[in-house]
Amino acid sequence: MVFGWSSAAWLIGIGIGLIGMCHLPFSFAARVTLVLLAGALLAFLRVDPIHTPYLSAIWPVLGSMFMFRLIVYLYDLRHEASPLHVPTTLSYFFLLPNVVFPLFPVVDYKTFRRTYYDADHYHIYQQGVDWMFRGVVQLILYRFVYNFLTISPAEVTNAGDFIQYVVSTFALYLRVSGLFHLIVGMLHLFGFHLPETHHRYVLASSFTDFWRRINIYWKDFMMKVFFYPAYFRLKTWGQTPALILSTLFVFLATWLLHAYQWFWLRGTFPITLMDVLFWSILGLLVVANSLYETKYGRRRTLRKPQWSFASIAPLTLRIAGTFTAICVLWSLWTCTSLSEWISLWHFTGRHANPSAQLMLVFLVVAAVWEGVPRSSAAKGAGAVQGAKPRQAAFTRSVAFTGLSIVLLLLIGKPAIYFRFGARAEQTIQAVRVDGLNKRDAALLRRGYYENLIGVERFNTQLWEVYMKRPAHWLGIRETAAVRSTGDFLTWELRPLAAIVFKGKQLHTNRWGMRDQDYEMKKPPRTYRYALIGASPEMGAGVADNETFESLLETRLNREASSKTPYAKYEVLDFAVGGYSQLQNLWVLEHKALDFEPNTILYVVHATDEDAALRHYIESIQKGVDIPYDYLKDLARKANIDRNTPRDVAEQRLKPFKSQILSWVYTRMAEDCRQRGIQPVWIFLGMIGENISQRDIDLHVRKAQEAGFVTINLNNWFDNQDTKYLVLADWDKHPNAQGHKLIAEKLYDALQEKGKETPVVRPTVN
Hints:
The chain is α/β, with parallel strands linked by helices. The protein has 3 domains: about 1-115; about 115-300 and about 310-430, no CATH class; about 495-500 and about 515-760, 3-Layer(aba) Sandwich (Rossmann fold). Helix content is about 55%, strand content about 5%. The strands form 5 sheets. Strands 7-6-8-9-11 form a 5-stranded parallel β-sheet, with helices on both faces. A hairpin with a 2-residue loop joins β4 (about 500) and β5. α8 (about 120-150) packs antiparallel against α10, α14 (about 275-295) packs antiparallel against α15 and α26 (about 580-590) packs parallel to α30. It is elongated.
């Protein structure tokens, strides 16, 4: 149902073949060798040397099903004498939720068999519902953090921002925790009474305690397969050396296996300095903590603890210290380089971001949720108690979860949350919709033109997008339609190019524009627009005659009135995929103005500001001559030259980021006014991006102050099913239907602005 018959047959066939190799009538070493050889062959096919659609679709799920379970299964075959039970084995490898959850907990085969309907059926089912609900709540918290609290390293300017960055980065792990609760809860509905995957890891009081609480299935897998075999082999050297070396071996294996996991899910094998640092430091901290516990012991009691200030205060301090250290360490792991992480510690601002205040709210909610007693149904399911206490616990669990689910459903109804005000409406809408925040939207756009390594983490939405994106889905800079310019512009479209781009024909005219051919000199009685922008305006993924520029021009001419002094309307498309605001300024001054436009249509997006800063830094690093004195002076003021690392340059330019934006707008508007051209600024929202109204209002105000007439098309897709307006799950550029809708909205907006400011465009109706 998910893959189609052909791909599904390959997935099941390969899986059964791997399972069969584990039971061949050969020695255990021979069977392991065969499995390794088969794995090597599949790994070769995974890199897609010859593109095969029926295989490419199954790799993440096939890898998720077998990359770790085969290790566990072979280990148990080696140490267990139980006979093969085909239904159990097939159930273990082909776990139903795995088809739609590639990121899957490492389920232990022995535990999987032992816990199947090992307690009262209804209690198992109810525990599954409880855990699914807990997972949903964590995913809601994750979306709130992701959309409203996460910031990029370049946005850290003060201590408040730093705290917000490190805490929100770690809080993104709620997505993994929530998904794992959801997955294991589903398995409970089929009778698999598996243990919990995470246990209040926010309340860990030491590094070893954190290791025991977070991703429990992974910890058990590493202890079973790596730690205990190594420890007992090394024990002859002494208990302390065996403990140290075995623990370090576990973290070395964890690092490599995380890269191995990413290979099967994404197709690349990332080995980065930040991975080495994270796992090395965490491993050393756990070793030190383990040695301390070995020497001084870990307090355990079978009785219910008696809480007092003397016992709570030290525990609270340990929890706070552990949480702080883990957050800082996690921020190190998620940075793209060591210099970027070091730059976080250099504060240039004094006032905290307003979003930082929300961190306190999040921490309180998370701590309360982690501290809420878990369902009593689970405690009573297998315990030797009377029927009435078990039934009472079961009833309480049903009532609590049922009422909570109803509450979530009600809050999620538009008719209800619309009554809470605009801010509440925007917040709930962002939590309900699965999209990219501003930071990841910028990374995704960079990914169309650059080979990024910063997304190779399981802490954002972006890894899923990259996992789905085919290897042959190229950015425009990777095609033959682009040539290098060797100057500040960096690249441009070739004149008279003809390629297939994202499945559609793309042609350029003699001027290197994706448009029909025009004379440079404007014909008599012609009203001419010049459209400037990036890939959406260029029409990435749609045919030449399907771009909103082409559709707008057609409609303007179709509905033109004989009362106007113009016989023809032209919309010239100067947009190029990946262009930043600085490149668009260059295009305006060196290309667009030569075509004598009446109006400039400058289209911007939420991520343009970051793209401009990135282009500016890259130009400095490449030693390109920067044709603007303002930018030259700014480089000297920020103490940046071609030898300055990008991360350091971004940090030094943080205070000037907004100034660059204002300067670009002002210069563009002045260029137009000097020539009697009307500048029109258009904000075009992208599906899947979450940008606050506050940020949009800031951009609108800057554009108006510079002298632009402004048009806001942020919500051009309102009341539409957005999945039918984009190219693909991994590419949120508008498709042909999306361009048609944008053209209609832009035409209507120009009509309205034409009434207010006639020089924008003469009335055509």
